Structures are given as structure tokens and as C-alpha cells.
Amino acid sequence: MSVYEQLGGAAAIDAAVDIFYRKVLGDDRISKFFDGVDIDKQAAKQKAFLTMVTGGPNHYSGRDMRAAHSRLVARGLTDEHFDAVVAHLGGTLKELGVADELIGQVAAVAESVRDDVLGRVRQAV
Amino acid sequence: MSKISYRGSSVELEAEESVLDALLRAGLEVASSCRAGACQACMLRAESGDPGAAAQAGLRPAQREAGFFLACMARPEEDLVIADAALPSHVTRIQEVRDWGGGIYRVRLDVPEGFSYRGGQYVQLARSAAQVRAYSLASLPGDPWLELHVRQHPRGKVSRWLTTAAAGDEVSLRGPSGECYYQVASSSQPLVLVGMGTGMAPIYAVLRDAIAAGHDGPITLVQGARSAAALYLERELSELCDGRPGIEFLRCVLEGDPDDPRVGDAVQRTLEACTDFKGRRVYLCGGVEQVNALKRQAFLRGARLQDISADPFVLAAAG
After folding, report:
1. d(Cα B295, Cα B304) in Å, to the nearest integer?
2. What is the pLDDT of residues A23-73, one digit of tens each?
3. Strands B9-12 and B247-253
4. Peptide bond before residue B76 is cis, with ω within 30 degrees of 0
């Protein structure tokens, strides 16, 4: 069973988006990347991201992640920012009562798109 | 198998297939992106038939009621007739135009036959196909008119035409749409209502609707305007608010005598009045920058995104 199903599917992801996005938007290290964006539209993207990393139904590819973040990479998006987002992801799941082991699984999925998000050649694992 | 009709074509849905897949298989062009019910790029509207709950999950109640659904998530068990996400259009007439001063006019229209709406939603008002503007409805369905609050822009073709129209002049409109109407988890949920400029139109409707529904939670009402002359609706708002202990009513103007306690920014005043937005139902209407700034702050201060209804007014670039 995926973390997505264990959390309770789409309805639970809606609740998680609120907590997650508030953490991200409230973090001065990364909030500048969200200046001027429509927060409803952005929340829909956060929902797609949370759905993906928790193993729910999604069709995002590495290429999508790359294209979606290329403008941000040009504006200085680095590992530091990626780490901050992953930390907020873990904090969100912890608040929702997800076990540490499962949080580790989710973080690993997030980790797998790091090079795509940051626009780098994918590292050999 | 369900039959899907769209743009004069029809296609039979195969087992496990989504409406989006079926339309694409039939060679019809439909925008799509995530195909997981998140991005809403493939939103269409069912004119008849039930698209199913999964296809409407995550949509706003007003969208669900109007038949909107996400094609990528739709696996309907019955036949569907689908239209693009455009709205039905109506023709009606101007009932009365009143100059309220400060460049603001109250425009009342006859209620078109078969037009159902919630106070605070908006309509697309057309002078011609090329000149369409959105206006919020300040009236409630029980009123014998549709009421718009129109600021006359010096070069605004639609606003100048509307504010100088005579009773009986014909107007066409599309709609309603928008989620800025009274909808609460319970009648005791605290409300924050902020209207800037003619953004007071939907706020006035939501306030009237809340009072009519017996709302007994606290209400913070903020009216912002450029100058004291543009603080319209004074008598109507006083009648609604006076003698109701649950309503805190703040009015502020951007420009004025420095001694006038009302001089101040509506965004700032709202944030001073509400430091914590947790559990509150929030309505924000007015200029796009102020609305977006307040929306972000309300969310950061604890309001759930689904509890924030924001209608930013965007001025048309030309005409």
C-alpha cells in the first residue's frame, strides 16, 4: 500500500497541501521563488507534487520537473532550497502522524527528482 | 458503454478509459497536462449526464453545481453531453442607473428568465463581442433586480456605456461564475469580509446573505476606498451593521486629512484587526495587488486555502 493510500488518498492530500505550502511560503529562504504567483494555482501544483512523492496517481516525468523549474534555476535555485522543501515535506507528514519509516520512503522519492528539479545531468546512483 | 458527445462528434467510452482518453482517441483536441486530477487544464462542462464524483473532486461547489468536471478523471456510467467550459448567456435590460458620487454608479438590471445565482458571484457583461467586462452581483436572488456597482473609468468603454445607459437598454451577460458567495462550515464560523473600491459589491451581497441566514459568528467587515467620496454604500451598510454586536466595521481611505482616523491602507487595517486567521472564512475583493497580498497573509496566518474566496479585479489593458 502506498503512503498516499495510507494517508487516506486525495482528501488527505488536500489537508497536507495546506500545511506543506504554508511552511514553504513562510520560509524566508525559499518564499522569494513564490513572489507574484497565484497561490491557488501554486497549491494545485503542490498537490500534484505531494501526490507524486507519496506514490499516488500521477503522470509527472523527470522532463516535466525539469521544465517546470528551469526559470527558478535561472533565478538561483540550489540544493539548499531543495533541502529546505524536503525538510518541510518531512515536517508536514510528521504533523499528520506518518511513521518515520514511511517519511523516509517519501523523502527518497523526492530525492529521485533532485537533479531534474535543479536542472543537472542525472547522477549515477 | 457510455456515449460521450462533444463538438458535434460522439465517441463510445471503452472499459477503464477516461473521457479525456476517449476524446483524444477520437481525434478531438482537448487541453490537458497532469492527467491526475490536479492541474485542472482539462476542465469541461457536462450539459447533461453525471460525470461522477471522482471527476468533480477538488472543484469548488459552484463549479460542481454548474456541471464542470475534469475529463482526465471522468469515467461516467451514463451518457454525457459535454460543452467547453463556457457559460450560458442571457439577454436582459437596464432597469435603473444611479450616480452614487465618487465616480461610482449603481446599475440595476432586470433578472433574466431562468437566471440562477448566488449573491457575490460575477457575470461577464458584453457591449459587443470584443467588449466584455466582469462585474460582481451585489444583489441576492430574492431581489427584483441584478445589482452591479460600477466605477466609471475615463477611458473605459464598457463602464462609460453602462453608467450612461437608459432604462430599457439591452445588455447581454454570461454567467454566473465565481465562488465569492456566502458558504460557511457553520453559522458560527468567524467571517472576514474585505471590499476595496467597488469590490464592496460582492462583499455587500455576502454580508446581506450571512445576516439573512442567521449567521451568529463574529464578522470583521473592512471597506477600503481611495478617498472619503468613494466610500459609498454608507447608509446601506450602517443599516445592516448598526445594533449588531457581532460585527466590527472598519472603513479606511488611502487619501485624506491626516487627522482623519480613517486614513490608512485596507490591507494593513485588516491585518491589524485579524492577527490570526485560523478557522476564519475569508472574502477578499478589490484591486489585484491588494487582494493577492491579503490572500497570502491570510493563508500564512492560518486560514485554509479553501476558506479564502478572493476576487481580484483586473483592469482591462485597453478600451
Report:
1. 10
2. 999 999 999 998 878 788 788 888 888 988 898 887 777 777 888 899 999
3. unpaired
4. no
Which of B40, B292, B300 is the closest to A22 by Cβ? B300
Cβ separation B296–A25 shorter than 8 A:
yes
Q: How many CB atoms lie within 10 A of CB A90?
A: 17
Task: Work out how many CB contacts closer than 8 A connect A with B.
Answer: 48
Where do we find the cell 432586470? B110
**Closest by CA position to B40, among listed B32, B28, B30:** B32
- Picking from A22, A25, A44, the nearest residue to B40 by CB comes out as A44
Q: What value of ipTM does the predicted structure carry?
A: 0.82
For each successive 10 residues of chain B (319 residues), what is the average pLDDT? 89 92 90 76 88 86 83 93 81 95 95 92 82 91 97 89 94 87 95 97 98 96 94 94 93 91 93 95 94 93 92 63
Enumerate long-range contacts of B256-261, CB under 8 Å, 24 or more apart: B256/B227, B256/B228, B260/B228
Q: Return the residue of A nearest to B294 by Cα.
A: A39
Q: List all residues 6 or more positions away from A125 whose beta carbon is below 8 Å from its beta carbon.
A: none
Kindly identify which residue of chain B lies nearest to residue A56, measuring between CA atoms. B36
On chain B, the residues whose CB falls within 8 A of the CB of A24 are none
Q: Does A33 touch chain B (CB under 8 A)?
A: no
